[in-house]
Every structure is written in structure tokens, then in C-alpha cells.
Amino acid sequence: MPSSKKPGPFRSSRHPEPDPVADGQESVWEYPRPPAIEATARLLRVELGGQVVGESARGVRVLETSHPPTYYVPLADCDAALFTEAHGRSFCEWKGVAQYFTVAAGGVVAEAGAWTYTDPSPTFRSIVDHVAFYPSVFSCFVDGEAVRPQPGGFYGGWITSQVAGPCKGEPGTEWW
Hints:
Mean pLDDT: 91
CATH topology: Metal Binding Protein, Guanine Nucleotide Exchange Factor, Chain A
CATH class: Mainly Beta
CATH superfamily: Domain of unknown function (DUF427)
Distance between the termini: 26 Å
Number of domains: 1
Strand content: 35-45%
Number of strands: 15
Number of helices: 0
Shape: globular
Radius of gyration: 17 Å
CATH architecture: Beta Complex
Structural class: mainly beta
Order of helices and strands: EEEEEEEEEEEEEEE
């Protein structure tokens, strides 16, 4: 009879083994569900094609179990001339309906590479007039550290050296 045990960092098919947490790190497995939102004074910088699209120390981040933080930059701290509304919407069970933007900068076009919530659920009202960016498309930085994108392409989490995983997004993690 074949083993039902999953390979890699998994204890079972439902509970991944969290990575060790070093000093100064946060484990994505300590983040809450439903997600929490908090203001951050960390310097967030987003570039496309070498051009700064947005930069702020007035952002917010959404923290959800198994996900690296998703950072939102105030639209007022972005170059609005680079943004056009993209077609399509998506729905988050926690935040509501997302609207997407295409961003063109530095000779590069990021089709539907950024998003916002114009009328989020009451818990997430603080992300109104903020925009999030896929770090798989943009060059994103937190306090000068280059961000690695959350695996999988669907999610927009920002992985830095201060985040301990494993993070949702790789094939086989959809059940997390």
C-alpha cells in the first residue's frame, strides 16, 4: 500500500511543518485567519523598468496564515500618470472586489499587475486609496531589501528575510 505521507516540509496532508524562526523574523504560520491589517512605517518602493512607480513609508500590510505579507502603498504616493484601469475584477472572501491596474513605466507594461479595493469590507477600510503590486512583475523593496514574490503567480505576497515560511503558492499547497 502506498504511503499517504507528503514529501518535503509536510507533517501531514493538512499541516505543513513551519520553518524555524530566527531572531527578527515572523512566521507566516503565526499570522491570523481571517487576515489582519496593520499600518507600517517601513519604506516600501516599487519599480518597473527601473522607474519608481510608488514609494511610501505610509503603507499597510495584510497578514494571513500561510501567506507572506501583502503590502499596499497609498495611491497618493504613486505616480498616477503611469496607471490605467485594467479589465476584469476578482473577489476576496475577506476584502471584497478588487479592481486592477495596468502600469507602464521604463518601457515595460505590467498588464493588470496592480490592484486596489475601492469599497472593501469594513475590516479592511484602511486599504481604500491604496494599491498592491505583484512582486513577480514589479521590483519591490521593503526598507531597501529586494522582495521575492510569493510562489505561484496568483498571490501577491512580498517575501523578505524577515519572513519564515513555508508560504502558500507552490503546487500542492492549495489546501493550506
